Amino acid sequence: MIETLGLTAERCIELLDAGEISCRELMAAYLERIEREDGDLHAFLRTRGERALAEAERFDSEGRSGLQGVPIALKDILCTRGEETTAGSRILEGHLPLYDAGVVTRLRAAGLVPLGKTNMDEFAMGSSTENSGFGPTHNPWDRERVPGGSSGGSAAAVAAGFAPLSLGTDTGGSIRQPAALCGVVGMKPTYGAVSRHGLIAFASSLDQVGPFALTVRDCALALAAIAGHDRCDSTSVPLPDPIAVPDREDLSGVTIGVPESLLAQGVEPGVRESFDQAMRLAEGLGASVHEVELPHAPYALPAYYLIAPAEASANLARFDGVRYGLRLEEAGDSIIEMYGRTRARGFGDEVKRRIMLGTYALSSGYYDAYYGSAQRVRTLIRRDFDSAFAGCDVIASPTSPTVAFRIGERADDPWAMYASDVLTVPVNLAGLPGISIPSGLAEGLPVGFQLVGPAFAENRILQVAHALEGAIAFDPTPPGMREAAR
Amino acid sequence: MSISRDDVLHVARLARLTVSDQEVDRMSEQLSTILGHVEALSKLELAEVPPTAHALSIENVVRADTARPSWPRDEVLSEAPAPQDGGFRVPPTGGAVE
């Protein structure tokens, strides 16, 4: 049986095109590996087993091309018709959506076959996947550490050879940060580039769906399959240019901006060293590097932790025990008592904390001071990026200020957990595209390198990331798993 | 910024969350800490800055008002925890509501 660890989607396509393997065999290899190895990692909440095999087999009998028959894992926040979708929450345990998310429809049209649903922080609220209602995911590089979050299951699945591609969602860093901590590629597209229809909403003005992959080229293939306008999401727009698979090897003529003042705060020495090395490689490829100012970026984290919880408190009002999901009702309950009882049982601590924070920030007498101020800061951050991009093509920084931290280490200190997002949230507030690629190791753990571009500059980011990835030559195989695979 | 137990209870009522005594204590402490960090925003002069609700400038989207088939009622109700007589049953909505 084929070894799936380190297997890229492009290589899967080559093997399928050459007839060296069937779609069914490929799917079976991934399912078998998940069965064997995921007990310890818990990247998946559930796999599709026979259904996935049957769908793969159809491409064997009917003929295939392109991405047809390539497996993909889906974060459990994306609705799948008739197949359980929980968003990592007990309140949705057993929930069978009536429709597929827009991205699921698109990837199915491209012939990608869903393998199963991956673990995540409940309702995408978290940076470690410890807030899942169904238990944490472990980092394939070190089982004692978190994979990042909220899309930790999707990142760990690609790193562990459980899927060549996966989808996650990114509201404040939830694709890029776990990609960084698991040593894989993860991309958050421009707000509006990908449909949010059927994505269970956390913070609607920030949420975007995006891919995880082992390489930048695979990431582009997956993004090309899911991007574009969807009439069921009026904030989605047609892309100005189709997503192209990058082939650039050098960076001559490319100007990279580095927000030095932002990096002065809390970036670990090992992460900084890996970042500096990657920047030297970029210069070696012909890029010119200079400092840019994002003077309001340090205010992004506090602004984000008002805007996102405020939007969440409204979005999560729908979980009320009436139309779907959990309901707890005792004899004689009023509707208010039923609501309170259901939500108290169904939501975990972090979700409750954010609902409370958001409700407070929107409540009478505090709206202007909190939510109103945060929205004004959002304008300042957008303007900072506009000015910075007048003088550079892309902006580079580490993705996460630290490598993967230990499970439990930040569980009792919400703000320490939120600080994981300090370098990723400004990008969401401005609605911009960003990618994280591995830049090397620190303390034996992967370090993420983030590239951000202007709105709809996905192709530019992919080209720069691809060229840099070649120079960095990172081996994405977690050492423990390499030995086990032998 | 300090969030009192009464503040927590008030916000929990607005948010339709039943909270235990223990949770009230913990939330009062944690929300106060978080809001303490958020206070950093008050250092900025924001009076002249317009708010941003949406990152990219988009225009209102309209479409033709054409009828399309909707979801079959039984399919929609199949996910409801307490369906009754072809509808969603809810507990009494009258009475004392704060």
Compose a concise summary of this entry.
With 486 residues, chain A is of the alpha/beta class. Chain A has helices spanning 9-17, 23-41, 49-62, 102-109, 152-159, 176-182, 216-226, 260-263, 269-284, 300-315, 335-346, 349-362, 368-389, 414-418, 425-430, 458-472, 479-485, and strands spanning 44-47, 71-75, 113-118, 165-170, 185-188, 208-213, 255-258, 288-291, 394-398, 434-442, 445-452.
Largest pleated sheet of chain B: 2 strands, antiparallel
Span of the ends, CA to CA of chain B: 26 Å
Q: CATH H-level name of chain A... which superfamily?
A: Amidase signature (AS) domain
Percentage of residues in DSSP E strands of chain A: 5-15%
CATH architecture of chain A: Alpha-Beta Complex
Which regions of chain A have little confidence, pLDDT < 50, spanning 5+ residues? Answer: none
Oligomer: heterodimer
CATH class wording of the domain at 1-41 in chain B: Mainly Alpha
Across the major sheet of chain B, the strand order is: 1-2
The assigned structural class of chain B equals: mainly alpha
Rg of chain B, nearest Å: 22 Å
Principal-axes shape call of chain B:
flat
Gyration radius of chain A, in Å: 21 Å
Describe this structure in words.
The complex is a heterodimer of chains A (486) and B (98). Chain A has 486 residues and is of the alpha/beta class. Chain A has 17 helices and eleven strands. Chain A has helices at 9-17, 23-41, 49-62, 102-109, 152-159, 176-182, 216-226, 260-263, 269-284, 300-315, 335-346, 349-362, 368-389, 414-418, 425-430, 458-472, 479-485, and strands at 44-47, 71-75, 113-118, 165-170, 185-188, 208-213, 255-258, 288-291, 394-398, 434-442, 445-452. In chain A, β2 (71-75), α4 (102-109) and β3 form a beta-alpha-beta unit. The longest helix of chain A is centred in the C-terminal third of the chain and has 22 residues, at 368-389. Chain A starts with 8 loop residues before the first helix and ends with a helix. By secondary structure, chain B is mainly alpha-helical. Chain B has a domain at 1-41: Orthogonal Bundle (Histone, subunit A). Helices cover 34% and strands 4% of the residues of chain B. Chain B has a two-stranded antiparallel ribbon. In chain B, a hairpin with a 2-residue loop joins β1 and β2 (87-88). Chain B starts with a helix and ends in a 10-residue tail after the last strand. The mean pLDDT of chain B is 90. The chains are: A alpha/beta (486), B mainly alpha (98). Chains A and B meet through α10, α11, α12, α13 and α14 of A and α1 and α2 of B.
